[in-house]
Design goal:
It comes from Cellvibrio fontiphilus. Keywords: Hydrolase, Signal. Residues 46-149 form the Carbohydrate esterase 2 N-terminal domain. The protein has helices at residues 5-12, 162-165, 189-197, 225-228, 267-283, 299-310, 339-357, and strands at 24-25, 44-46, 57-59, 65-72, 75-81, 85-91, 94-100, 103-110, 116-124, 133-135, 140-141, 144-146, 154-160, 199-205, 250-254, 289-292, 317-320. The chain has two domains: 5-15 and 36-146, Sandwich (Jelly Rolls); 154-357, SGNH hydrolase (Rossmann fold). Helix 3 (189-197) crosses helix 7. The chain contains seven helices and 17 strands. The strands form three sheets. Strands 1, 3, 5, 8, 10 and 11 form a six-stranded antiparallel sheet that branches. Helices cover 20% and strands 25% of the residues.
Length: 359
């Protein structure tokens, strides 16, 4: 499903800038040295953020976002990152890429806007790997920060692998490999469905991961999703997420592609999936859990996964098949679902959640 997480983390630094990226702000008056630090006031955080250190908010899961409203014509913010990352900036609903370099700097999020009220969303698109990003300041505007945008009434949590992280979704075909410029969590089935449903989404996704073993492993070596699911920062073993901080209306689990990388699984796959379901149900009692069949598995592997997942249904746990990659869809990088497949899966998920939850 992927080559190696270590290889990918090095490839992130090679990613090129596309889609008319926003410029880095070089004004020393807006540097982190002059920033009073991040307070979180009049801002909304979506995703898992570590705010235990004064003056900053650290995050690493793809899809983590900041929203704020202001009056004025321009906005900037100070960010830090342990590696190069791709972000998306939405200004009044219009998206644009922002490429963040390793280190600390102030970045311009918008400029030249007509005088008036505006809303900005800053979303991390790049996967976790070992790269941690941080908000080091509140938004700096030439007018006034307004009360934060209201939280959406509906909430979703999705737990998955590279499919849910958006690996290669913007790639031209199966022959390309991992690059930050072709991977985009906001174009995944889960993000598309959340946007259609006007729901907040927490995406806990890591390429190559399984619930039992990761891609390329005969037996488990790296932390499985049973371990990473519990973390605020995906690659920090000392990081723990407080499940009470975000209570989803439904939980989606899309894991198994990597467990099946050799074509079959041991009984450990079912046992570990059962454990993950129990962990989720302990964190979010009485909330529906959906087990998603992998769109990358076919033939006997697909049927095997459906049987195993089906055996775990009941007591608020349901099986959902959103479809698989079809020949006419084309492919994303390294045989991953592209935008066409993700859109169809997202539409199917919307229909299922609307029917089940009266949304």
């Amino acid at each position: 499903m992927w080559k190696s997480a270590l290889l990918f983390s090095s490839l992130i630094a090679l990613a090129a800038c596309t889609n008319q990226p926003l410029p880095q702000q070089d004004n020393p008056q807006n540097s982190s040295a002059h920033s009073p630090g991040f307070s979180g006031e009049q801002q909304r955080l979506i995703g898992r953020f570590d705010t235990s250190s004064p003056g900053k908010a650290q995050f690493s899961w793809p899809g983590s976002a900041l929203e704020f409203r202001f009056t004025g014509t321009r906005a900037a913010i100070t960010l830090a990152s342990t590696g190069d990352l791709r972000f998306q900036v939405e200004v009044n609903g219009k998206p644009q890429d922002l490429w963040v370099k390793a280190g600390e700097a102030s970045y311009e999020l918008a400029s030249g806007l007509p005088q008036g009220e505006h809303q900005i969303r800053l979303t991390r698109l790049t996967e976790s790997f070992a790269v941690v990003s941080s908000l080091l300041s509140d938004p700096v505007v030439d007018g006034e920060l307004l009360p934060a945008p209201a939280a959406r009434e509906k909430r979703l949590l999705v737990i998955g692998d590279s499919i849910t992280a958006g690996y290669g979704v913007e790639g031209p075909d199966q022959h390309c490999h991992y690059e930050a410029k072709t991977s985009n969590q906001q174009l995944t089935y889960a993000a598309l469905a959340a946007n259609t449903l006007n729901a907040d989404l927490h995406a806990i996704a890591w390429s190559g991961i399984g619930v039992w073993r990761s891609y390329g492993e005969k037996t488990p070596v790296n932390p499985s999703m049973l371990v990473r699911y519990q973390r605020t920062l995906a690659d920090d073993s000392n990081s723990r997420w407080d499940a009470t901080a975000y209570q989803p209306d439904a939980i989606l689990i899309n894991l198994g592609t990597n467990d099946y990388w050799e074509g079959s699984v041991s009984d450990d796959y079912r046992a570990n999936m059962k454990t993950l379901i129990a962990m989720v149900q302990q964190d979010y009692a009485h909330k529906p859990v959906y087990l998603i069949v992998s769109p990358m598995l076919g033939g006997a592997q697909r049927e095997s996964q459906k049987i195993i997942l089906g055996s775990l249904t009941g007591k608020g746990v349901q099986l959902v098949d959103l479809g698989k990659i079809e020949p006419q869809d084309g492919l994303g990088c390294d045989w991953h679902p592209n935008k066409i497949t993700n859109q169809r899966m997202g539409d199917a998920l919307v229909a299922r959640l609307k029917a089940d939850l009266n949304w």
